[in-house]
Specification:
Length: 667
């Protein structure tokens, strides 16, 4: 580690000594109170015990002298110190005191800013990132344009977006914060921003760039003798070297971070460093050491109340169990961890849970479930680490670098004016050529697109003609032939009955011919109807439904009704969807007529959000869906719904009728 220069070290030591001499005078005035708060700030980066002692003295003095703004500062320090040392309940207590102080003084913008800042950081450190963000953004709108408080707020917002895996927003706020800290010449603020930018690029797997930011941050923190900052940067460097495959260097930085956290009694940071070291050992194949550090980190994360980290650790421990083929309640725990990550807003953690669930189901040979969670993992991973996000962040970084050099560029503008005049003519010619080329390209695209549209329309017309021919041929040729067979079988039945009084095998065979030919005629009628383009509208489907309902329900004295809006009747459906909808409806009506023993049936059709909904409900005796069915009818209905990318639901209770519901996309 680099050593402080003698000048800087002496300056810091003299500052602390001066503050302590002021406190020793025991004047109990504003000067002593400010000295106590400054000492709390100095030791918050070095020694938590001393910092906490000075904060207690500052709070007591502020209460006695009724200095509410200094009292608010004391509460803020106690929130940070208690949360960092693993006492979340105490931190929450002081947050409540600060909230009460703010409510007692509703017109004080300064108190509101203090409360928002403390609440935002508290919920962020609790892993409740979505809850923390509104406090931070509200504070930003109330802070002056150019001061360290605004720069710090920009940094905190960027860190919160980073935890939510929204890296474009994270880099935007981090670069704004770095620019302002550089303008204010705040080395401590710059070190924090460089640390956060390193974390951004680490998450985006740009490891060399991340390493550069971390190393710059590490150097500044050593100059400032910022022990707490050094350990967080050590965590980042450990992660970078782990991803670069340099495991020994990575291990050194993690152990250094753990040791620093223990010395300062920073329970939260110790837990995080142990977690990262456990991940390193897991990658190295050392399951024993990995499990040990996971368990130590889990105990500490529970102590500080970090629910997000606890969920990650439990999931990683289960990952080890999966590798060792231990199956003890893994599925429920994984699903619970996934739910925790979703509610916390940690999209990166959510993606990892999807991956682990996929691995688990592969080990159980439940490949449908494994494929489902793998798809979710890939989709979320692409969203977080996609090339678009990387490109946007690269542009933001380049923009930041460009803004830093604007002042230097202004000094060179006069020298470039003459060259600009000469180049402007060439640029004009280039632009004209580019416009001409662009116009040619656009016209070509339009012509090609017009040809495709015309060709597509011609194919549609040809397809309609083919469907008409098929429908006509089926109806005229095969349909007429089946009708003839049916009529002749009926005549033969009558003649056979007259001659033999219904005795003998001829009557049986003729009955079968009549039954099968009638069944074939009915199915042929449905086929002809389904492929005929005249029946593509929903209006024709409803007419067919009404005809079938009348044919089935009226002989059984079952009242029926159709409920639908006139606006949906003009909808057009393709052949497959139209056929499947009608067959599902047909099966539902048949089941109601055969088994429900009801006297009323209602059919409802509606369209919402580009989805068509069909409901067939009766007032019959119903059934218990949990008992299942032995027939193929309901299974066929469900298969047809899946084929249309829809879903079918059966709602029924004994004595309360049955409702068959279908929902499917229109397009």
């Amino acid at each position: 580690m680099l050593l402080l220069s003698a000048k800087n070290l002496a300056a810091q030591t003299n500052a602390i000594d001066s503050l302590q001499r002021i406190v020793a005078l025991q004047r109990h005035d504003t000067t002593e109170l400010n000295a106590l708060l400054n000492l709390t700030n100095e030791y918050s980066r070095r020694d938590f015990n001393k910092a906490t002692a000075y904060a207690h003295q500052a709070i007591a003095l502020a209460r006695n002298t009724n200095m509410i703004f200094r009292l608010a500062n004391g509460y803020q320090y106690m929130i940070t110190l208690n949360q960092g040392s693993g006492r979340p309940d105490s931190a929450r207590y002081y947050l409540g005191l600060l909230d009460g102080l703010t409510r007692e003084n509703p017109t004080s913008t300064k108190l509101k800013i203090s409360y928002n800042q403390s609440a935002g950081l508290f919920y962020k450190n609790q892993g409740q990132y979505s809850k923390a963000l509104p406090y931070m953004i509200e504070n930003l709108s109330m802070l002056p344009n150019e001061n360290e408080s605004r720069a710090g707020q920009l940094l905190n917002i960027g860190n919160t977006y980073q935890n939510l895996s929204e890296y474009t927003n994270a880099v935007t706020y981090h670069l704004q914060s770095l620019s302002l800290f550089e303008k204010l010449n705040s080395k401590r603020g710059q070190s924090f921003c460089l640390q956060s930018l390193g974390n951004d690029f680490l998450s985006l797997k740009q490891y060399e760039k991340a390493k550069g930011y971390f190393q710059r941050s590490y150097k500044l923190k050593e100059e400032l003798q910022d022990k707490r900052g050094i350990l967080t940067t050590s965590q980042g460097l450990g992660e970078v070297y782990k991803e670069l495959g340099n495991y020994s260097t990575s291990e050194k930085y993690y152990l250094q971070a753990i040791q620093g956290a223990r010395e300062m009694k920073l329970t939260l940071e110790e837990s995080r460093s142990q977690y990262q070291l456990a991940l390193l050992y897991n990658r190295m194949g050392n399951q024993t050491e990995s499990r040990k550090y996971f368990q130590q980190s889990l105990a500490l994360s529970r102590q500080v109340g970090d629910s997000t980290l606890s969920a990650k650790i439990k999931s990683d421990l289960i990952g080890i169990d999966i590798q060792q083929q231990k199956e003890k309640g893994i599925e429920l725990t994984l699903l619970s961890n996934l739910n925790t990550q979703i509610h916390s807003g940690d999209r990166k953690g959510e993606a990892m849970e999807y991956a682990r669930l996929s691995d688990y189901y592969v080990s159980k040979k439940q490949f449908d479930q494994a494929y489902y969670y793998l798809k979710n993992y890939e989709a979320l991973k692409d969203s977080i680490e996609g090339n678009t996000v990387v490109l946007q962040i690269k542009q933001l970084e380049e923009q930041f670098q460009s803004e830093k050099k604007e002042k230097e560029i202004e000094l060179l503008k006069k020298d470039q004016e003459l060259q600009t005049l000469a180049l402007s003519r060439e640029r004009t010619n280039v632009i004209l050529i580019a416009i001409a080329l662009f116009s040619v390209i656009v016209i070509s695209i339009l012509l090609v697109n017009r040809y495709r549209i015309m060709n597509r329309a011609r194919r549609e017309v040809e397809l309609q003609q083919v469907r008409n021919h098929i429908a006509r041929d089926l109806h005229d040729d095969i349909g007429s032939t089946l009708s003839s067979i049916n009529i002749m079988s009926q005549l033969a039945l009558r003649e056979n009955a007259r001659l033999s009084n219904g005795q003998g095998n001829a009557s049986t065979h003729l009955n079968k011919i009549a039954m099968h030919s009638a069944n074939m005629m009915e199915k042929m009628s449905d086929i002809v109807w389904s492929i005929n383009p005249k029946n593509d509208s929903l209006d024709q489907v409803v007419m067919k439904m009404k005809e079938f309902a009348a044919e089935i329900l009226e002989p059984k004295n079952i009242d029926y009704s159709f409920e639908m809006a006139d606006s949906i009747m003009a909808l057009t459906l393709d052949v497959e969807k139209r056929k499947n909808i009608f067959l599902i409806f047909k099966e539902a009506v048949n089941n109601a007529a055969k088994y429900s023993e009801g006297n009323k049936l209602t059919v409802s059709l509606s369209v919402q959000h580009q989805k068509l909904s069909l409901s067939v409900r009766d007032n019959g005796k119903g059934f218990n869906p949990a008992l299942g069915t032995t027939g193929n009818g309901l299974r066929n209905m469900e298969d047809r719904a899946v084929a249309m990318h829809g879903k079918m639901i059966r709602i029924s209770e004994p004595g309360k009728g049955t409702d068959i519901q279908l929902e499917m996309p229109i397009t």
